[in-house]
Amino acid sequence: MANVKQSVAPQDTQRMELRSLVKLASETISHYWPMQTFIHHNPLHGLEHLPFEEAIEEARKFIGGNGYLPNSQYREYFQQGRISSSAIHETLQTRAQEQHVVIGNRTVTHLEVLKTVFIHGTGTVEPDVASAVLDRSLSETDVTGLREKLQDLSRSQEQQFSLNFHADQEQSELGSEYTLAHWCDATLGTGIQDQINQELIKWCGGFLDEGHAPWPMPRSNKTFYDGWKMLAQEDWTGPLFGIQGWKSKIRNLPDLPSDAIGESLETLAIPQELWIGYFTLHLAQLPGWTGFIKWRSEQSNHQWQQAFPIDLVRYIAIRLFYERELVARTCEAKLGIPGTFTSIQSFLRDHPNGYGLYKEWRTRGLAEQVMANLDLSLFIQEPLPIDELDRQGVATSHTWQTVRQRQAEEREVCILVHLARCLDCSVQDLIESPSETLEILLNWVDCFPDSHHGPLWLHALERSFVTDFLQDFSPNIQRLRQSDESVEHPSESRPLTQAIFCIDVRSEGFRRHLEEVGGNETFGFAGFFGVPLCFSEFGSEHETDQCPVLLKPKHIIKEVPRAYQANAADKFLERQQLAKTGHNLLHDLKENVITPYVMVEAIGWFFGFRLFGQTLAPLWYERLTSWVKDHFDISLGTTLTVEKLPKDEAEEMVASEHRAIIYRILIERYGRLGNAVAHDQVERLRKQALNEVSIDNTEDQELHRLLHWTEADHEKFLQQLMGEYGVHKRAVTNRMHRITQRGFTTTEQAHYVETALRILGYTKTFSRLVLACGHASTSDNNPYESALDCGACGGNHGVSNARAFAAMANKGQVRQLLAKKGITIPADTHFLPGQHDTTTDEVQLFDLEDVPATHRKDLNRLIHDLEEAGRRNSLERLSRFPEGNNGQSLNHAVARTKLRSVDWSQVRPEWGLSRHTAFIVGRRGLTHGLNLEGRTFLHSYDHRQDPTGKYLEIIMTAPMIVANWINMEHYFSTVDPVVYGSGSKVYHNVVGRVGVMYGSQSDLCIGLPLQTVLDVETPYHEPMRLFVIIEAPMERISTVIARHEVLKRLVGNQWINLVALDPETMEFFHQHSLEEWQRIQ
Question: DSSP letter at 274?
Answer without folding.
Answer: G
